[in-house]
Structure formats: structure tokens, C-alpha cells
């Protein structure tokens, strides 16, 4: 027995912390960590609605989001390592080759 | 307040504090370790909501694999320690945007789901229920996600490999 809005507020807080991390961090790995927080907030919402609506579909989509997050971290860290090899820095505000 | 709500309050408090610590820590390794606590509290929330398979997958995949990947990433890219080198100069704008997002979401949530609503009976989606539904109703998305993982595996190897030719 649990009230749905409590869980949704926790999820909203995790998402906002992730938004702050993405906007305020310079280190690319820290930006990826903040993105993980946002994806986790999505998963909390999916599982909470799955539990309250008594439908297992939300849980399954949470599992899919976890798989996508794992793929995203693998590719993201490969890109970060490539960036470090080429620029000797992973500060996202110093990577401005495509900025006009 | 029911017993589950008290347990959830503790889990949510720990998770929220460690989420703040992840995005404000001055040491990158400390941030990764705070991320472990935040992900564990999300996994505990899943278990509390009756999603046992999602909860254990969360703990195994996130805490066991993704955080290790992050730690490897941090080790391979030596990052300076300290607030000025980790945060950019638009920190306050970011804080403003994040506070605005939270305020908007909180308003919408309490508008759609009143805080004094009836607590719901937790649905126990056991592993067998999840497996049956996944391989009966969600076979095509499952195959798509398998293909995505394969593509990500190959892509990560191609990207991170050292070019031997030049």
C-alpha cells in the first residue's frame, strides 16, 4: 500500500537533479552520470504506474530502458575516450569544432 | 502512512541526497560512488513496488556493470578535481532551470494525482509473469533491443580501437 504521487515526486526530483548535472557539469563523464539519473527517473515512473495499474507492461519497458541505457553508456564512454585521446581534455565546453 | 510508505520515505530521502551529491561532488570518483547509492535506492524502490525482476536487473546491470564502466572511463581520462574544473560558469542558470523543471513537474503531479489519494495495492509482477508477457506480447521490441545492443557493442569497439593504419 503506497501512494502514487510520493513515488512520482521522487522520480521528478531525480530528473531535476539530472537536469542540473547535465547543465552545470563540464566533465563529459559527469554529464553521462547525470543522464543516467534522468533515465532512472523515467524507470521509476514506468514501474510505479505498472504497479498501480496492475499491468506488467511498464516493468518490461523499464527493462528495455535499462538495456538502452547500457548501450548508451558503452557508446558514450567510447566517444569520451576517443575525445580524450584526440584533445587531451574531456571538458564539454572546449569541444566546439562544430560551433559557428 | 502505511509501513511501505515509511520504508519508501527512507529510501527516497537517501536516493535524493545521493542524487544531489552525484551532481555536486568535487571529486569524480566520489560522484561515481554516490551514483551507486542513488541507483541502489532506485532498485530498492522497484523491489518495494513489487517489481522484483526489474529491481534485481537494476542492481546487477547498473551497480554491477554501468558504474564499473564509469569508473573505467574516469581512470582512462584523468580528470582534475575541484569545483571550478568540474562545473562550468553557468552553474546558477542550470540550478534555476532544474528548480523550474522540478516545480513544474511537482505542480503537474499534485494536480493529476492528489497527495491525499487512496494508496494503491502493490502489484507483484513476479519474474515468471514478466517473462511470459515479454515473450508473448513484446517479442519484436525484445529482438529490436537485442539488435541495438549488438550494434552498440560493435560501435563501441570500432570507436575506442586505436587506429593502426596511421
Provide tags for this entry.
heterodimer, A: 100 residues, mainly alpha, Helix Hairpins, 78% helix, elongated, B: 166 residues, Four Helix Bundle (Hemerythrin (Met), subunit A), 77% helix
Summarize the SSE layout with pairings.
The complex is a heterodimer of chains A (100) and B (166).
Chain A: H1 4-24, H2 28-53, H3 57-87
Chain B: H1 3-24, H2 28-48, H3 52-76, H4 83-86, H5 91-112, H6 127-137, H7 139-160
Helix pairs in contact in B: 1-2, 2-3
What do you see in this structure?
The complex is a heterodimer of chains A (100) and B (166). Chain A contains three helices and no strands. Chain A has 100 residues and is mostly helical. Chain A has one domain: Helix Hairpins (Orthogonal Bundle). In chain A, helix 1 runs antiparallel to helix 2 (28-53). By secondary structure, chain B is mostly helical. In chain B, helix 2 (28-48) packs antiparallel against helix 3. Chain B starts with a helix and ends in a 6-residue tail after the last helix. The mean pLDDT of chain B is 88. At the A-B interface, helix 1, helix 2 and helix 3 of A face helix 1, helix 2, helix 3, helix 5 and helix 6 of B.
Short description:
The complex is a heterodimer of chains A (100) and B (166). With 100 residues, chain A is mainly α. Chain A has helices at 4-24, 28-53, 57-87.
- Whole-number radius of gyration of chain A? 17 Å
Helix segment count of chain B?
Answer: 7
- How many beta strands in the DSSP annotation of chain A? 0
- In CATH, the architecture of chain B is Up-down Bundle
Assembly type of the chains comes to heterodimer
Considering DSSP H and I runs of 4 or more, what fraction of the residues of chain B is helical?
Answer: over 70%
The gross shape of chain B turns out to be: globular
Number of domains of chain B: 1
Q: State which percent range the strand residues of chain A make up.
A: under 5%
What do we call the CATH topology of chain A? Helix Hairpins
Largest sheet of chain A: none
Strand element count of chain B: 0
CATH class category label of chain B: Mainly Alpha
Amino acid at each position: 500500500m503506497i501512494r502514487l504521487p510520493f513515488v512520482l515526486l521522487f522520480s521528478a526530483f531525480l530528473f531535476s537533479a539530472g537536469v542540473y548535472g547535465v547543465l552545470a557539469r563540464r566533465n563529459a563523464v559527469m554529464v553521462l552520470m547525470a543522464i543516467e539519473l534522468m533515465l532512472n527517473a523515467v524507470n521509476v515512473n514506468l514501474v510505479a504506474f505498472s504497479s498501480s495499474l496492475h499491468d506488467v507492461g511498464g516493468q518490461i519497458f523499464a527493462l528495455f530502458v535499462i538495456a538502452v541505457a547500457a548501450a548508451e553508456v558503452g557508446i558514450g564512454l567510447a566517444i569520451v575516450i576517443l575525445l580524450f585521446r584526440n584533445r587531451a581534455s574531456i571538458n564539454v565546453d572546449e569541444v566546439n569544432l562544430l560551433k559557428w | 502512512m502505511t509501513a511501505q510508505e515509511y520504508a519508501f520515505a527512507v529510501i527516497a530521502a537517501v536516493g535524493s541526497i545521493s542524487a544531489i551529491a552525484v551532481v555536486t561532488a568535487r571529486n569524480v570518483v566520489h560522484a561515481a560512488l554516490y551514483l551507486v547509492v542513488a541507483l541502489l535506492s532506485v532498485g530498492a524502490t522497484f523491489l518495494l513496488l513489487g517489481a522484483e525482476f526489474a529491481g534485481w536487473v537494476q542492481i546487477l546491470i547498473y551497480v554491477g556493470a554501468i558504474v564499473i564502466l564509469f569508473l573505467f572511463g574516469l581512470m582512462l581520462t584523468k580528470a582534475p578535481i575541484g569545483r571550478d574544473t568540474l562545473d562550468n560558469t553557468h552553474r546558477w542558470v542550470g540550478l534555476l532551470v532544474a528548480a523550474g523543471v522540478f516545480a513544474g513537474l511537482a505542480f503537474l503531479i499534485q494536480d493529476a494525482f492528489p497527495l491525499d489519494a487512496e494508496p494503491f495495492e502493490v502489484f507483484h509482477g513476479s519474474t515468471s509473469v514478466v517473462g511470459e508477457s515479454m515473450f508473448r506480447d513484446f517479442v519484436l521490441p525484445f529482438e529490436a533491443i537485442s539488435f541495438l545492443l549488438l550494434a552498440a557493442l560493435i560501435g563501441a569497439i570500432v570507436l575506442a580501437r586505436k587506429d593502426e593504419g596511421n
